[in-house]
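Reading is simple: each integer encodes one residue's backbone shape. The lines below illustrate:
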Amino acid sequence: MAGRAEPRPLAKPIGTITRGTTGINRLRRSDRWLMHDRLVTDRLLAAATPLVVDLGYGAMPVTTLELAARLRRVRPDVRVVGLEIDPERVVPGRDGVEFARGGFELAGLRPNLVRAFNVLRQYPESAVGGAWSTILSGLAPDGLLVDGTCDELGRRCAWVLLDRTGPLSLTLAWDPFDVEKPSDLAERLPKALIHRNIPGEPIHALLTAADRAWSYSAPLAVFGPRVRWRQAAELLRQEGFPIRAYRTRQRDCVLSVPWAAVAPLPRDDE
């Protein structure tokens, strides 16, 4: 295809090799969210030739292949490229998905969407801002970045959605039958927030309030954790927390707020 951009890795891609652990269906919760989030789907549908990069797919490309299959339900012609900084993890293309070596510089591609899951979690907190800036500078003009983390089985997930202006929102998603209380997601917060879950920080206030609302909603537990969480989320809204309301029935428990509601407070050393 004329004008088709091919990955052009630098002599040394930007970033460091991480552990590379992955697993089948590990990122299903974030994939489901991407398929139904209005901003994400609108950007993909508006792109002439949508390009999605899965950054740091790990030792196996399975989650990249799953992402491609799911996004094709939204945009059948989406092009998906998996990038890995470790050359030994780069595999031949398959099922219409390409794989190449690359890091935060995105191998010279200009994607409409980048997913980077369980990558920055393995970096120091001080490296997050620089990594975000590098990735965002390589996006298409209306491009989006999803920086997230999850547990080994994908039952507890958290991610930040960003565009070129910076972070837009934080979303927590979890298996309704695996989590006892919302603050159990604290250990899976993205790197930009995981060390800020302390008294006085907005993310701590949100998780504390979420636990309180979850406790107040205990009488609804007989109807299942999804019903109980919907009530807890409504209680949070009544307290003034800008919890996003989803019109469709959710398979997962989902807590999503604008970034301004959880943005870390400035520190004296910053």
